[in-house]
Amino acid sequence: MDERSRRIIELTDLDHGPGLEIAPLHNPIMRKSDWDVSYVDILPTEELVAHYAGDPNIPGDDIAPVDFPLTGPDGTIRPLSEAAKANAPYSWVLASHVIEHVPDLITWLDDIATLLRDDGALVLAVPDTRYSFDAYRPQTTVGQMLQAHHQQDLIPSVRAVYDYLRSASTITAAEAWADKRPGLAGSRQHGLPLVMAGVEQAKAGRYVDSHVWTFRPLTLIQQINELGELGLCEFIVEKVQNTRPNELEFYAVLRRLPRDRSPERDKELRAKGKKHTNDSPDRFRTLQTPAKGFTVSDRERRLIERKRAAVRAARRVLRRG
C-alpha cells in the first residue's frame, strides 16, 4: 500500500461492513483483495478500457472491474443511488478527486446519503484549488450549487466548462506553495478557441469533463455546513486533514446523519460538526493579488477621501428624496 492510500484509509474506521469506491479507474485505493468493496464508474469496464486505449498513463490491464456502471445499456446515465443500490446500505463511500467534477453537487451528496447506512462515512480526497491548476480560478459558491441543483444539471454547465478551461494554468503545487506566480496570462493551458469549443459542446448537451467546483479545506467545511442549514445536506464534516506543504490535495470525512432524527437532534448533531480548520487562511492570497503590500501617496489619499465624501453626499441626497 502506498503512503497516500494509507493516509486516506487511516482517516476513519473502514473495517466494518461493505463499502463503495467511486471512479477508482486504474488505481483503486480500496483493493478487493483486502476490503469488502464495490466499484462504481461512469462506464462499464470494457468501455473504460476502450476509452483510455493508447493513454500511457492509464494502462488498460490495470483498470479496476466496474461493478456498477452509471451508464445503462441504452446510453442513459442513471443516478448513483440507483446504479449502486444492489449492495446498499454501505458502511462507507470513498471518492478521490470526484466531488469537484459532479455537475449537481447537492444531488450527488443526497445519492450517497441514500446509499449509506446511518452514521456511515463519506471519505473524500479533494484537490486544493490554491495549489492546483485551478489556482487562478474564481471560487465557486453555494449559490452556484443551488443553481445547478435547480436546473438538475446532468452535465457540467456552460459556466463550469468556461471557468474550468479558461482558468486552467500550468502552475505546479510547488510553485504555488512558494508563491512563484507565473501569472494566468502567461500560463494558460488552453487558448480561447479551445475554450469556446468546449463551451459549444456544453451548449449542445455534450458532457465536457470539468472541475465544476473548487475547494480548499475551509470552504468545503463552510459550504457543507451552509447546505445543512438550508436542509439540503444529510452530512456533517467530521474531520479534515489539511493540504500538506508542496502537495495539492486535502482529505475529509463527512458523517451521514441518522434518518429518524428529530429537529432538536438534528440541531444538536450539526452543532458537533467541524466549523473551522487550522488551514493558515492568513497565508492564502488570490494569485491575481500582488504578494507585497502597496503604499498610497498623499495625492492619492486626498483623491480617495474626496471620492468617499462625494459618495456620502450622494447618499444623503437620496435619503432626503
From TrEMBL:
Residues 262-286 are annotated as: Disordered. The keyword Methyltransferase applies. The keyword Repeat does not apply. Keywords: Methyltransferase, Transferase. It comes from the Bacteria. Residues 262-285 have a biased composition (Basic and acidic residues). GO terms for biological process: methylation. One of its GO terms (molecular function) is methyltransferase activity. InterPro entries: SAM-dependent_MTases_sf. This is Class I SAM-dependent methyltransferase.
